[in-house]
Amino acid sequence: MPDTHVATPDPMLDPVADPADELALALAADRLFLSARTPQSWSDRPVPVETLHRLYRLVRQAPTAFNGSPARFVFLSSPEAKERLRPALSRGNHAKLKAGAIAIVAYDRRFFEHLPFLSPHYDPSPMFVDEPSLAETTAFRNGTLQAGYLILAARLLGLDAGPMSGFDAAAVDAEFFADGRLRTNLLVALGHADGTPPRPRAPRLDVSQAVAVL
């Protein structure tokens, strides 16, 4: 879980005019990025259903193409639901089933059917109806974007989040999305870390190594 110390303005952040806004920015940056860590081990402390609903209500506000919102979230919180996932996980991810909840982040391959409602000022659904490859690419890209929002929203609500890619997506689809409309993108463990991180944060690339401004 993010540290509870009071954040001070970070020198990496550009200053803003209002000191109160600067402190709020520093607190948010600390909670979402600077102090947050991906747990290596998990507490079995449950995540209330109300928190999971609140989590989604935050995620849905963030932008996607045409407001299409193709991600679909299945939260596995009961022991029985998590055990259904176990056969699809790599052995190294089995211990993560201890987390309060496991989110299956899937995407709706026919998300465009909701566009007349979600994009009332301009209905782009016709461009996807006869272009399944475009629909698939758009759903996957924007569903992945929403998975990122999920991780940040979880941190904002005081949860830890651990994305997982060590799993058999086809096996997850067969178990949870047998009709083929939804496809699994990734998994995210949600809940609370068991203890402090066992090692320091790993290095990150320098701006000069990862950024170009043209």
Please write out the topology.
Layout: H1 19-34, H2 49-59, E1 71-76, H3 79-85, E2 101-108, H4 115-118, H5 126-129, H6 132-156, E3 160-164, H7 169-176, E4 182-191, H8 207-210
Antiparallel strand pairs: 1-2, 2-4, 3-4
Task: Explain what this protein looks like in three dimensions.
The chain is an alpha+beta fold. It folds into 2 domains: 1-36, no CATH class; 39-194, 3-Layer(aba) Sandwich (NADH Oxidase), CATH 3.40.109. The protein has helices at residues 19-34, 49-59, 79-85, 115-118, 126-129, 132-156, 169-176, 207-210; strands at 71-76, 101-108, 160-164, 182-191. It has a 4-stranded antiparallel beta sheet, sandwiched between helices. Helix 1 (19-34) packs across helix 6 and helix 2 (49-59) crosses helix 6 (132-156). The chain is globular and about 50 Å long. It comes from Azospirillum picis.
